[in-house]
Amino acid sequence: MKKKGWKERMKYQFDNLMSKGTVALVGMLFAITLIVVVIAGVLGTGTGNGMGLGNNIWMSLQHAIDAGTLAGDDTANILYIVLMALVTVCGIFITSILIGIITTGFEEKLTALRKGRSCVVENGHTVILGFNDHIYTLISELIIANENQADGCIVIIGDEDKEEMDQRIAEQISDFKNTRIICRAGTITEYHSLKMASLETCRSVIVNETDDFLVIKSILAIVNYLKSEDAFDSDMHISAMIDDELNYEAALIAGEGKAELIYTQDAIARIIAHTCRQPGLSNVLIELFDYDGDELYFEKYEELEGKRFGGILNYFDKAVIFGVKRDNQILLNPSKDLILKKEDLYIVLEDDDGVAKPVIAEREVDTAVIASGSDMKHETPETILILGMNTKLPKILEEMNHYVVKDTKIVLAMETECQELKQPNQYPNMELQIEICDINDRRNLNRLITDDINHVLILSDLECETDLSDAKTLLKLIHLRDIAKKKNQHFNITSEMLSVENQRLAKVTKVNDFVVGTNIINLILTQISENRDLTSIFTDLLDEEGSEIYMKKISRYVAVEQAVDFRTMTESACKLGEIAIGYKKVREDGSFEIVTNPDKREKVSYGSEDYLIVLAED
Fold it and tell me: What is the percentage of the chain residues whose pLDDT exceeds 70?
């Protein structure tokens, strides 16, 4: 084999040196300058200029770094002038290269900073892994959550350039208040990207991905990173959503106790099932899940030790007690005779954490207007029309079956058949009638809207892109409102939407409820990222077991058309084993106003069509 020549080896060594970056190149130029200066100093001693070696080296250095030094030389010594002129030319050449190298180095560093590759040095911050359209809801909610902090910080790791992420966030969010947003570009499952986000010092991590496999991979990467940094025992936790029930257990195992997960299909299906029969309920749920208004907090009130749970509900003028946390167990709407302990934590709906303080005193209630609770009309079977079909439909029907009266009629209008819905006795409380037709055709909608329809639910077409799916929903909403007007018929409409922006467009159709599933899930994710104990509460609120949120006719609790304060309402609900959390006022035109956590001292006159919002077991 022929060996490489010395020229090729030298060229290879030079290429390696050039590839080592700015510092190596500056060091090389410094070495070249030193060699030139020393050689010129040695040669200068032979020109007869009368100076010693040290002085000649010094003068050579002066010529190399300052071209003007040549003008002060003695022109009588030609050899010395020629030698110093050569040194000066070398100095000019080297200085020019040095300036170019330094300029290029600074540009590369600035470019790297703009691309977001440097590590953050923060403590107690929130990390969001993944950049997509959900990011704006997450950031907006975290900004509100950080309002009571001096210096909030959110670190975002995405696969786009930092500049692009910064620009898109700035276009969607105008006021960051006291929260700093730091974007970094990287792959969310790589060690270096997690290192950039300083996961070991953060408060919580939100995995903002919709693909289950990438979510699980991200959770594994986070756990492995924390172990490698000896930070696994820290208090930080992971919040993530799982779309497929089959992947839920695997994600929990991957998290090793660090992950709080939301099964999105199940959660959205339950919300839709509850909302379509109780118009306005989605507003109540959003009020509980977001940071705008009142939220759920854990508070400690040692002064309530020894008292009955039912006896303390009116101790708070502007807060609602949902339950207690005892021995790491969440007790929502516990027995009103539960004796409270000193170490109990109270689940409180209030304006901000630490705001609500109990006033331990007997509260006067108007017992004369409290109803017996026995005049609640017996529920009769209803007819619900469901337009559309998606993967959540079987779960929605399963959830409805737990709450509807037996022999409730469900009309399923869809464009293709679904064999999964044809199993006999699948939903024992409901009678299913399947209609295969084009649900966007006005003629079919006219036929489907019969006189016995009580509720209409529109499901999104998940096979289409978001905007197209919502556009189809908007078309059906316009037709339905026009049909109701022409038939002089009243029925409640609940619509599943995929985009919050499209929901705003649909407000002109006067729909009773919009359920933007992904938006609600993002609200829940944010709450859990701030307090992982809220996972159990939200799960209980949406589960058929235990207590859920209901809207019940006001006449069940108090006499109508009389001014009543909410203390009396709270006491009346308490007698029935329920917790009053707000009310729904229905206007003459069918629209309504939802009020949660009202001031218990204010008096309101309720009509026969108004509802009390309660936390109850059934």
Answer: 90
Q: Residue 214: which domain range?
A: 126-257
Please state the domain count of the chain: 3
Cα 587 from Cα 594, distance rounded (Å): 11
Give the three-state DSSP class for 44.
Answer: helix
What confidence category does residue 220 fall into, taking pLDDT thresholds of 50, 70 and 90?
Answer: very high
Q: How far apart are CA 192 and CA 520, in angstroms?
A: 32
Q: Of 20-24, 378-382, 459-463, 512-516, which range is least confident?
A: 512-516
Close Cβ partners of 293 (under 8 Å, ≥ 6 residues apart)? 287, 351, 596
Contacts of 268 (CB under 8 A, 6+ apart): 392, 515, 517, 520, 521
pLDDT digits (tens, 9 = 90+) for 545-591: 778 899 999 999 998 888 999 999 999 999 999 999 999 998 877 77
pLDDT above 90 covers what percent of the chain? 42
One DSSP character per residue, 181-228 reads EEEEES-TTSHHHHHHTTGGG-SEEEE----HHHHHHHHHHHHHHHHH
Token pair 């307090």 in the structure block, residue: 531
Query: Do 100 and 176 sit in the same domain of this protein?
Result: no
* pLDDT of 491: 86
The structure tokens 């021995």 sit at: 327
Instruction: Work out the average pLDDT over 340-348.
Output: 94
Q: Domain for residue 187, yes or no? A: yes
In a domain, 475, yes or no: yes
Residue 88 lies in a domain: yes
- Indicate which CATH number applies to the domain containing 183: 3.40.50.720
Report d(CA 182, CA 154) in Å as an integer: 6
Two tokens, residue 481: 């409102």
| Range 11-28 burial, b when 16+ CB lie within 10 A, else e | eeeeeeeeeeeeeebeeb
Q: Answer yes or no: are the C-beta atoms of 44 and 80 closer than 8 Å.
A: yes
DSSP conformation letters of 115-172? HT-SPP--SS-EEEE--STTHHHHHHHHHHHGGGSSSEEEEEEESS-HHHHHHHHHHH
End residue of a domain, out of 490, 516, 542: 516
Contact status, residue 56 vs residue 49, Cβ threshold 8 Å: yes
Three-state DSSP state, 405: coil
**Domain containing 82 — which CATH number?**
1.10.287
pLDDT value, residue 265: 85
pLDDT grade for 94, boundaries at 50, 70 and 90: confident
Instruction: Check whether residue 130 and residue 111 sit in a common domain.
Output: no
**Greatest pairwise CA separation for the chain in angstroms:** 123
410 has pLDDT over 60:
yes
Residue with tokens 């969010």: 173
Same domain, residue pair 105 and 201:
no
> Residue 204 pLDDT > 70, yes or no?
yes
How is 297-364 classified by DSSP, letter by letter?
Answer: EEE--GGGTT-BHHHHTTS-TT-EEEEEEETTEEEES--TTPBP-TT-EEEEEESSTT------S---
Question: Which residue type sits at 505?
Answer: L
Residue 116, pLDDT score:
58
